[in-house]
Amino acid sequence: MIPVAFDYKVAESVEHAIDLLRQNGEDAKLLAGGHSLIPIMKLRLAAPSMLVDLGRVDELRYIRDEGDHIAIGAMTRHCELERDQTLREHCGLLSYTASLVGDPQVRHRGTIGGSISHGDAASDLPSALLALEAELRVKGPSGERTVRAQDFFKDYLQTDLAPDEVLTEIRVPKLGSGTGWDYQKFNRRAQDWAVVGSCVVVERSNGSIGSARVALTNMGATPLRARAVEEALAGADTRSLEEACRVADEGTSPSSDVAASAEFRRHLARVLTRRAVEQALQR
Ligand SMILES: Cc1cc2nc3c(=O)[nH]c(=O)nc-3n(C[C@H](O)[C@H](O)[C@H](O)COP(=O)(O)OP(=O)(O)OC[C@H]3O[C@@H](n4cnc5c(N)ncnc54)[C@H](O)[C@@H]3O)c2cc1C
Taking residues 22-42, what's their average pLDDT? Predict the structure, then answer.
């Protein structure tokens, strides 16, 4: 299908993008990689009157070591997350998760900022950012602010971003040697979206789990933290893992669709979380 007609402007900088958003009101939308926005415009599920293209705003494209964390510009593409040596060394979970997004074409166009701002519960990167307890930097006409990833996703395709704000940077903590991680994504074909995904970060302590953070993909209207299983995993060891992971779907509200029933999604959440914790303990 062909989208509804729209105007198009190229932003020269973050400030310029904010100005264009402010001048054009709620119907203006930022364009990053276009791999979520353009498909929904073609389906006429979105009809912005103006697109503000961030494609030439190079100040938003970087991965930097900033001491205790890695700072990532919002226009950094999935393939850059996948390959960057600094990120692989200090926060391998995010590189690995990016490598499982779509196919090479999608990873060469899609950006981390677009993936997070779109706020789709079926996307992979939001779960990694929740499990990592990442922070997001947002800029708008009244200045800059920081939002915790866990406060960012509000409802189905709804985030904390105001219509005239730009997500500029994502900050992920460096993971220490006592920290294990994994992402288990269940899909029917290699390049598909997750039917369900489970992202796990564990702190190891004398052969058992000191603490665990678990975030689930496609188990509700937003990407979410699975608090019940996090509590059950604290102090668990390999023998008690299966029992602890039986509550991985507690507090979730998965939907039924052509890919899976809600009941099957609940089953997947339990199995994938157990597998992710097992892998995390070995890394
Ligand atoms: C065939 C196909 C398969 C895919 N498979 C997967 C998959 O397996 N897993 C997965 O996670 N994703 C998948 N995707 C989605 C892909 O990862 C997208 O790239 C991503 O969701 C959106 O990023 P984008 O840069 O393309 O954003 P865009 O589509 O350009 O924008 C998405 C939304 O974010 C807003 N936005 C963009 N940047 C900013 C910013 N800096 N500040 C504020 N708002 C902003 C836009 O206004 C828009 O509303 C797939 C896409 C396709 C087409």
Answer: 95
